[in-house]
Each structure stands twice: as C-alpha cells, then as structure tokens.
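Sequence in, structure out.
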Amino acid sequence: MTQLVAFAREREMVVVHDFAYADLGFDGYQPPSILQVPGGKDVAVELYTLTKSFSMAGWRMGFLVGNAEIVAALAKLKSYLDYGSSSPSRSRRRSR
C-alpha cells in the first residue's frame, strides 16, 4: 500500500480502497488500512460495508472515510443518485 500511495501522489490520483472485510481478521491478524500509510489520508478513501460484519446482506449500507474533499465530492454525487435507506435501518420510536 505504501507503493500505491506513492504512485497516487506522483500522478495526483485518488485511491478507493474497498475495505469490506476490515473486521474479519483471524489469529491476531488485522487487515491493513491504506489510511495507516503515511500520506494515505491525502490521496485515499476507504469504503466499509455493514453487510459482512453485521449480517446485513442485501441492505447496501456502508460508509466512506478518508480524504475529506473526496468524501464530500462522493456525498454530493450520491445525493443525486440515492434517495434513502430501508426503513429497518432508520427506525425510531414514535410517541403517541
């Protein structure tokens, strides 16, 4: 990942790391985050999903972390494409 960050910095590119299995390390192994690499937070974002770790298959729920400008740009783009999450994921108690 160090080489990938250096490559992205040299070429002014963005790296999107699909980190779907971030929580699934075994025997003490922790999957590496590109954001741990020096300079990674400047050029990269990571996508996490709730599907794998929280048994939410089919819900298409997740989040993005990393470079704030990249996150903001994707949030703006997604605001035109997405219209909301399924009701079980945002349910709340209502008073009567």
